[in-house]
Amino acid sequence: MNQTTRQIASDGLTLDDEERRAIEHARDHYEQPQAACIEALKIVQRRHGWVPDAAIPVIAETLGVGVADVEGVATFYSLIFRQPVGRHVILVCDSSSCFLNDYEALRDALTARLGIGYGETTDDDRFTLLPVCCLGACDRGPALMIDDHTYGPVAPDDVADLLEGFS
Amino acid sequence: MSARRYHSQLRQRSAERRVETHPLTWRLREDGAVLGLEEYVEKDGYAAVREVLSHRSPDDVVTTMKEANVRGRGGAGFSAGMKWSLTMTGPNIPRGYLVCNADEMEPGTFKDRLLLEQQPHLLIEGMILGAYANHSRFGYIFLRGEYVEAARVLSRALEEAREAGWLGRHVAGSDFDFDIALHTGAGRYICGEETALINSLEGLRANPRAKPPFPGQSGAWGKPTVVNNVETLCNAPAVMRHGAEWYQALSGELSDDGGTKLYGVSGKVARAGLWELPIGTTGRELLERAGGMRDGRALKAWLPGGGSTGFLLPEHLDHPLDFDTIGELGSRLGTGLMTVVNEDQSVLSLVRNLEQFFARESCGWCTPCRDGLPWTVKLLQALERGEGEPGDLEMLDKLADDLGPGQTFCAHAPGAAMPLQSALKHFREEFERGVATPPRAASAAEPMPAGDSFTRS
To answer: Do the chains contact at B1 and A131, CB–CB below 8 Å?
Structure first.
């Protein structure tokens, strides 16, 4: 998908009933609706893979909070993506224990295999590569996450096989 | 060998873990599977809640927690009982919140993950006790977004507890009402700072708040709020069940601090892992349990409890790992999970890696942190390339001072300063070697690049 079609798709962004209900349900957990804003961003991201600009006023309206308040939050958190990502997001732990267990070789193997650096997406929209804070898997570093699962230790030689499983 | 799915695991066999000595882990299954409600209750689970809610006052719970001297396991080491005693309560004070800080992101720390993934009901029980002691109306588990498995386990456990009457109206048939919601984060290390966590919980940017007022006075939505770490709360059930004296005695002669600690070791050791041991266990014992250094390399330095603690040397291995002792050595116990550096590894490069982490994770609220940390990274990168300039080390010394306690709203910058300052002290010659000789001519100096190694070169 190229940038133009993405832009057009995001312009017509609406929440379906299920998404709206999920956001309203999240809102009930808190004293103020603003608190559900991160969850609402995640709900949008679940369907689209990322949070298009057009989603921000829609979320603000659903929660009854300011557009700037939602935008401020949406630009702060590292797991809220504000540009399109691939079908699978690879989060590479770059913190101290993985660093001491040669994470840089793993990072280099990933960038070589995928032909992308951090913050980039492969041409076939299959993978996006990002660094992440200590994944709490230090006893088996270097570690990484692909979508919802954590793997470790991952040797540079494991990369080809590991990525094979993601279409 | 191919990469395997990661699952949290304890390195201790069940034969070593006993109810009398291992309050956090004695129930854990040998196969590492999650402990469901039924099995938890069979193994004396929720007994402390039943007992406390029917026979003891909230003040009594606070006093017991204080006497047990459970010190905050998130890294700060503040007495949990003392914190609980400072929560505002009274007829005209609204009931507030109990928040579990499950935002485990400290570099080198993988302990809360084990408790969350394998024993969710211990945390829920601890939260009920904490809420009762603090008159909390409602509880939140603030879980980092990447802990997907823990989120699944906790959601299920919360449902189980609600169905069985441990949460909701009239907890365990008492007059006390309390429920818990799971709140999952969306990244950013700073969310682990308790006031930033409260902002994040409220759906705001995770900037820290000024203190005072402390959360116990005015926290989430202006209500009294208690924020405790996962491991801290998981200690509460055994403290209430067996008493402060018993808890204190767990550490025996090893330390003035009470209880046990989930200790761990990572880095290039033979068998990295996690163990529940009496607080005050030495770094040497941990290193031995981890099978020593990998590939016969010698230990060069170690961080006692995460990326925001100061470097210690091999000569410090025989000191008890407790809050006061490690503090006296000029470092901090932090989370109590050791990270080891071997003789072939560069402390300068590790410090550069740590400062890159802290620079990236700064929320940008305070100037010394927002501007000072990227500056340290650039100086360290230059030294790493052997392109440092005379005065760089002195500038790093100054930055470490300026980033220290008292200059910023929260402990992020002081946490970043600690490994830097201690590395400059213990490994100064490594930094000195990075200064170019002869100094680079002025014409060779280039503007500092705006980006860094995060993008493909």
So the answer is: no
